[in-house]
Write a structure and sequence with these properties.
Elements: H1 3-14, H2 25-33, E1 35-39, H3 44-59, E2 64-72, E3 75-88, H4 92-96, H5 99-106, H6 108-115, H7 169-173, H8 196-208, E4 212-219, E5 226-229, E6 239-246, E7 259-263, E8 269-271, E9 277-282, E10 286-290, E11 297-305, H9 327-330, H10 337-343, H11 345-356, H12 360-378, H13 381-393
Antiparallel strand pairs: 1-9, 2-3, 3-4, 4-11, 5-10, 6-9, 6-11, 7-8, 7-10
Bound molecules: 2-oxoglutaric acid and fe (ii) ion.
Fe (ii) ion is lined by residues 174, 229, 231, 288.
Length: 396
């Protein structure tokens, strides 16, 4: 089922110098630049079927609003991205309604083994106990306030459900990439013998023993967008690679909904969500957002876990990193996540306002979290100076 894409990736790798990175093809490009775009990898009939399945799910009201959940001292708070709906394919019953995606779901290993030729993707579910939630975003200096992650954080592949703190807010605002704890609106239909709680439990169990996440997304074209985020903001998230496939026939300039990638300090890339376009990027080091869409837009995303994502050396920023000499390494390292909100503070805030603007309460909350994070980062002299340096090194 993934053979079109696998073939495109393999062929490109065998070809001579078709990519900016030379002979290694698309996968080398992802390794070097952190992202790559592949057009027309999928058979047209498959693209049409997948688009139809997403539209049918949306029309039947079987997708849930894309939400972000924050755990706070006074209970969880959920922010909804207006206009954006999603369906997690780990939900067995929902998959029955979309045979094309069901087949994709059961054959992800085809793509995993192709990508494993160059990336450290997890091929087997992790048998180890879940990683401890990250308790410190930076170790510079030892006195700096550390992000605290909720102990209710889900075990795998998801953003942290956070408290007032800031570091993991990237993941939450990113959409809580999985939002595993959100209630599934399809879980309480009349013909559903089980309770929504049981279904939710089953969904979480399915996700826990998987090395990937497959989700469908429908944007209804009423201005929905995503604020800046990393798909893997911090532990216990395990995502290594994000694979996005767009299904929008007749997309035109002005329709909006472009994916905007912002490689750290580099030139941003605006990528129209054209039909049969696949975008692959490193989940832990490509900052991105989606611009407002004024036309309906459909896509699906496969997130592949890594076997060794978020090891301490890419999570904890140390004093030795705070030097201009480290910048070339930082732009290729997930360590950048610790500083990204400070380096792009205005862009983050603007994107949050665009995303949650329709709902003043949510906007206020999202912006407050962003600012709290900034305050924490910038309270430290060394970090503040280094951020200043990084801002001057930005190419936009
Ligand atoms: O819809 C897109 O183009 C990307 C969505 C996204 O960034 C996400 O789901 O994490
Ligand atoms: Fe994303």
């Amino acid at each position: 089922m993934w053979s079109g894409l696998v073939e495109a990736l393999t062929k490109a790798a065998a070809a001579e110098d078709h990519t900016p990175c030379g002979g290694g093809g698309v996968l080398a490009e992802v390794e070097e630049r952190g992202f790559a775009v592949v057009d027309d990898a999928w058979p047209a009939a498959q693209v049409a079927q997948l688009r139809n399945e997403i539209e049918a799910l949306h029309a039947a009201d079987c997708m849930e609003p894309n939400q972000v959940q924050f755990a706070t001292g006074s209970g969880p708070i959920r922010l909804t991205k207006p206009g954006i709906f999603e369906a997690d394919m780990h939900h067995d019953q929902r998959r029955q309604a979309c045979p094309g995606f069901d087949q994709l779901f059961h054959t992800v290993a085809e793509l995993q083994s192709c990508l494993a030729t160059r990336f450290d993707v997890a091929l087997e579910p992790d048998a180890r106990p879940p990683a401890a939630p990250c308790t410190a975003a930076t170790e510079v200096p030892a006195t700096s306030t550390n992000a605290t992650h909720s102990s209710t954080t889900q075990e795998r592949g998801t953003a942290n459900k956070v408290t007032k703190h800031t570091e993991s807010a990237e993941g939450e605002q990113s959409k809580d990439p999985d939002n595993k704890n959100a209630r599934d609106p399809t879980a309480a239909t009349d013909d559903d013998a089980r309770s929504s709680g049981e279904q939710q439990e089953q969904l979480q169990k399915n996700q826990q023993f998987s090395t990937f996440t497959l989700k469908l997304q429908y944007n209804d074209g009423t201005g929905g967008c995503f604020p800046y985020h990393y798909d893997n903001p911090a532990p216990p998230n395990k995502r290594l690679l994000t694979v996005l496939v767009y299904l929008n026939a007749n997309w035109q300039q002005g329709d909006g909904g472009e994916l905007m990638l912002a490689p750290f300090l580099g030139k941003p890339q605006v990528i129209p969500p054209l039909e049969n376009r696949t975008v692959i990027f490193r989940s832990d080091r490509i900052l991105h957002r989606v611009l407002k869409a004024s036309k309906p837009r459909a896509c699906f995303t496969l997130w592949l876990d890594g076997a060794n994502t978020n090891t301490d050396d890419v999570v904890f920023l140390r004093e030795k990193h705070l030097t201009p000499a480290f910048v070339p390494e930082l732009v290729r390292s997930p360590l950048q996540r610790t500083l990204s909100r400070a380096v792009y503070e205005e862009e983050y805030e603007r994107s949050l306002r665009e995303c949650f603007g329709a709902n003043p309460r949510d906007t206020k909350y999202a912006v407050a979290l962003h600012r709290a994070h900034l305050k924490q980062t910038l309270a430290n002299d060394k970090l503040r100076q280094f951020v200043q340096h990084l801002k001057t090194a930005r190419q936009w």
